[in-house]
Design goal:
The structure holds two protein chains of two kinds. By secondary structure, chain A is an all-alpha fold. Chain A has helices at about 1-30, 35-55, 60-80, 95-115, 135-155, 155-165, 170-175, 180-200, 200-205, 210-225, 230-250, 255-270. Chain B has helices spanning about 1-40, 40-65, 75-90, 100-125, 130-145, 150, 170-195, 195-205, 205-210, 215-245, 255-265, 270-285, 295-310, 315-320, 340, 390-395, 445-450, 460-465, 465-485, 500-515, 530-545, 560-565, 585, 590-595, and strands at about 160, 245, 350-360, 365-375, 380-385, 405-410, 415, 430, 520-525, 550-555, 570-575, 575-580. The model of chain B is unreliable at about 1-10 (pLDDT under 50). Classes of the chains: A mainly alpha, B alpha/beta.
Chain lengths: ~280, ~600
């Protein structure tokens, strides 16, 4: 039993972690938490299944098309729901505008795709039992994404520009960085990461329109645990959440595992509002 | 006291006439609701009932979303909870069967409890976190309803409660729901128009200033989470009856979106707006039947359009009064003499003493061993170059920062470090460097906020509009009007505060601080941005305030103002006292002249 808890826990945790990273990627350049993060992961599953199963494309083509579509949705998020409300960030209108866009995405998916969960194809057709690819694929995808992100942020000029904007928006603009374009790029990147989360988790979660709202919540918990904008925190938080949830699932049953996650969420927020991995409070007076 | 009694007597007779324009639309909607049975069929009874039930929930949620500004997007969960609690209690498959009129209040209590649990993150964190916790709650409640088959019947569902005659016909049940909706409207309007409603808006738009006036955010929020949760669960019980049979499918997230968007379409801080919003959104899918599948999509588009184009909602469209232009040549003419009628004169005189206060941020020593004495009835000036620790000192006194070392005493008592919300009760009021007023509230309401700690009515009394609450309201309104006269802004009492000029906001802040009748008044650069005439008037106002026995601590850069009105002056530099003494001594102090005044 321990092994299956580990396998399914790490798999689910990796998906949550990737959704958490999606939140963070959007947050870092815009200071906006967007409700579209979970929807991007949902689209990763739904579009992946559509391209490969319904349209019969090869896996790799379907994968690339899915990521491209998710990147476009990410850019649309920036244009429609983020850019217009950035001027008055303190009014938190982005909560409403991104929620509105997320609902639209979800509704379109429900109407065009159907409201029943549908199967997702085998990607490599490797492994069985606890070594089934549906368990290890999300973990591998998560690891590859992290390594790629680290390379991007540390070794490339664009990545360093992202970091500069995340650290200090004003100073970065004063240096002449094209803040607006970089923001659009980061939303495209977030779309890709969300798409990877959905595609790699497709066999586990199936292609289902309602996954969006679910992943919005389960993907946000690691962000809340790890602290806003902290990718490392999101990864640890996500994996821990997945293990915790699956352990609760096996030990006390399905009803209480979601109760346990919710309780954990509330308790952590009350005990450590800035997340377990720190962060500073803004000056108020 | 003459002014106060005169205005309150006047207020008594005019109260109904003033309130009528506010009440008339509600009476109109109620009249239409009562006419409905005579002009239509059972189909409309169903829609009317649904509308009334939704409004029962929305009227409570409106206080959370529209007034407190917390984005609760998953309130369908509390509707679900109420529906199942009522149905299960009435069906008696867990406990002995309970009569439905007892089951509803029990469901209300359960809803109130969960309303608070879901709201807990809102006490410490804003917006997105709370939105997420309500969303998470909505997700798990549906999962539990599906999985807990022995109680909820799982996916097969459970029969909704049945009401006894005369409420067992469509129109009978409609009448019951309209009655509940009317009571819910009355209660939420009472809360909204009481000092609790103003405090909610204050916490939303000017949290720091709200703390300085002694408003406790957690208490405030818990009260309305209880209220909104109870109403939502009662609405759930009625909803279960309307559905006759409930399954988890009946409580889609779309419903949550409907409730939430009804409020935003209606407009923040309004009750009529969200009510119209609920009515419109309930009817919309009925008259556009082919669009029913796309209704959530339409709601979402509507939400986006409102956020981007019309953030004020219906309420802003209906707010005709604030479209009239304000007089452009208005001047602030304070009448300090009138203070005598409002503020009681103090004798005895406490001292506010700071000893060895130290505070550092990282490696920067913002205050480094500061001693300060503010005496009742005197004006104490605090000057110094930028970054010398003036505002930080004010923030330490008013509790926003806890000093790392040193003591503060007020008279005989030690002032606890931190805890800004307790300062108002100690008689310490303050203003802010950038005025922190509530833009969406009227000038009068802004000033009334300052007297929040003086109200005696409890939340329940306010909800039921008990005599003690009405007395509070009369007292606060009369005092606020009188103080607006003192600072010279009484003609603007009804205007929205965000339409005023910067200098006027400064005087509003002073009036708000005076609502407390403070023993000590801390003014943070009150003259910044004022014209020379206005500074002169400000000077005479401050002098009059201290002449009534209030100790004033004045942080200011206008050296002329400081030397003109202060009894004592302390000069800070790099967090330390550079010099202290009378204005005459400071003016010739060598180091002060070279470090700050310039010579």
């Amino acid at each position: 039993m321990l092994v299956s808890i580990l396998a399914s826990g790490l798999a689910a945790g990796a998906i949550y972690a990737l959704v958490g990273v999606t939140y963070n990627t959007m947050f870092s350049t815009s200071r906006v938490m967007s409700f579209t993060a979970g929807q991007l992961a949902m689209l990763g599953g739904v579009l992946g299944s559509m391209f490969t199963l319904k349209m019969g494309m090869p896996i790799i083509v379907g994968f690339v098309l899915t990521l491209a579509a998710c990147a476009i949705v990410g850019v649309i998020t920036e244009f429609v729901a983020v850019r217009p409300v950035l001027k008055s960030l303190d009014q938190h209108l982005y909560v409403l505008s991104t929620l509105a866009l997320a609902l639209m995405i979800q509704q379109i998916a429900a109407i065009k795709w159907g409201t029943e969960p549908q199967p997702f194809p085998r990607v490599f057709g490797l492994g069985s039992g606890i070594w089934d690819e549906k368990f290890w694929l999300p973990v591998v995808a998560c690891a590859v994404t992290i390594v790629a992100l680290e390379y991007l942020y540390r070794r490339t000029l664009v990545g360093r520009a992202f970091v500069a904007i995340a650290e200090d928006n004003f100073a970065a603009r004063a240096l002449g960085l094209p803040e607006r374009n970089l923001r659009v790029a980061s939303y495209a990147l977030a779309g890709v990461i969300g798409g990877i989360a959905g595609f790699s988790g497709g066999q586990l979660l199936l292609a289902f329109f309602a996954n969006g709202a679910l992943l919005n919540f389960y993907g946000f918990v690691p962000v809340a645990l790890g602290g806003l904008g902290n990718n490392r925190g999101a990864i640890f938080g996500g994996l821990a959440l997945g293990l915790f949830q699956q352990a609760a699932n096996f030990l006390v049953g399905g009803i209480f595992s979601s109760v346990a996650v919710f309780t954990l969420f509330i308790v952590v927020l009350l005990a450590a509002p800035q997340g377990l991995f720190g962060g500073t409070t803004a000056r108020r007076v | 006291m003459t002014t106060v009694t005169a205005t309150s007597a006047q207020g008594e007779s005019g109260a109904w006439r003033a309130a009528l324009p506010h009440i008339a639309p509600f009476l109109g909607i109620l009249a239409l609701a009562l006419l409905l049975p005579f002009v239509s069929n059972d189909y409309w009874a169903l829609i009317g009932t649904r509308m009334a039930i939704y409004w029962v929930l929305v009227s409570g949620l409106n206080l959370v979303v529209g007034f407190a500004g917390h984005l609760a997007i998953g309130y369908v969960a509390l509707l679900t909870l109420g529906a199942y609690t009522t149905s299960v209690l009435v069906a008696g498959n867990v406990t002995p069967a309970v009569p439905v009129f007892l089951a509803l209040p029990i469901a209300g209590c359960v809803g109130a409890l969960f309303g608070v649990i879901v709201g807990l993150p809102a006490l410490r964190l804003r917006t997105f976190y709370f939105a997420m916790s309500t969303l998470g709650f909505a997700t798990i409640v549906t999962q539990i309803a599906l999985a807990w088959q022995s109680v909820t019947g799982g996916g097969i569902g459970i029969a909704g409660p049945e009401f006894p005659a005369p409420f067992d016909t469509p129109w009978g049940f409609y009448g019951l729901c309209v009655a509940v909706a009317a009571v819910a409207t009355w209660m939420s309007a009472n809360v909204a128009r009481s000092r609790y409603g103003r405090a909610l808006i204050a916490v939303r738009d000017a949290e720091v200033a709200a703390e300085a006036t002694g408003i406790s955010k957690p208490k405030m929020l818990i009260a309305i989470f209880l209220f909104a949760g109870a109403l939502a669960a009662i609405a759930g019980g009625l909803f279960a009856t309307l559905q006759t049979y409930i399954t988890p499918d009946a409580f889609t997230f779309d419903l949550s979106v409907l409730f939430f968007i009804a409020i935003l379409i209606g407009g923040r801080g309004s009750i009529l707006g969200p009510m119209l919003g609920t009515i419109i959104l309930t009817i919309l899918p009925e008259i556009a039947a082919p669009l029913a599948a796309w209704s959530t999509f339409l709601y979402a588009v509507l939400l986006l359009v409102i956020v981007l184009v019309m953030p004020g909602g219906i309420a802003a469209l209906l707010d005709f009064r604030n479209r009239r232009p304000l007089a452009s040549n208005r001047a602030i003419v304070p009448r300090p003499a009138a203070l005598a009628d409002i503020v009681r004169r103090r004798t005895g005189g406490k001292h506010l003493k700071l000893r060895d206060i130290a505070l550092s941020f990282g490696n920067v020593k913002a205050i480094d061993g500061l001693d300060l004495d503010v005496t009742a009835g005197q004006i104490h000036g605090l000057i110094g170059p930028n970054g010398s620790g003036k505002t930080t000192t004010l923030n330490v006194i008013s509790g926003y920062y806890a000093a790392k070392a040193g003591t503060m005493t007020l008279g005989e008592d030690v002032l606890p470090p931190g805890q800004p919300a307790l300062r108002a009760a100690c008689g310490i009021a303050r203003t802010f460097q950038t005025p922190r007023v509530i833009g969406e509230a009227s000038v009068l309401e802004n000033v009334m906020i300052g007297g929040s700690v003086e109200g005696r009515a409890t939340f329940v009394e306010a909800m039921l509009s008990a005599p003690r609450n009405r007395e509070d309201e009369r007292m606060l309104a009369a005092k606020a009007r009188a103080l607006l006269g003192v600072v010279g802004l009484e003609t603007l009492a009804e205007a929205r505060a965000d339409r005023l000029q910067h200098s006027e906001l400064r005087f509003i802040e002073i009036a708000r601080a005076l609502m407390l009748d403070p023993d000590f008044l801390l003014l943070d650069e009150p003259a910044a941005g004022l014209s020379n005439d206005e500074i002169e008037r400000l000077a005479s106002l401050i002098k009059a305030i201290s002449a009534r026995g209030t100790g004033v601590l004045l942080v200011e850069h206008h050296a002329d103002l400081i030397f003109d009105i202060c009894h004592q002056v302390t000069v800070l530099n790099l967090g330390r006292t550079l010099a202290a003494g009378t204005p005459a001594e400071i003016r010739v102090h060598k180091e002060v002249v070279s470090a700050y005044l310039g010579g």
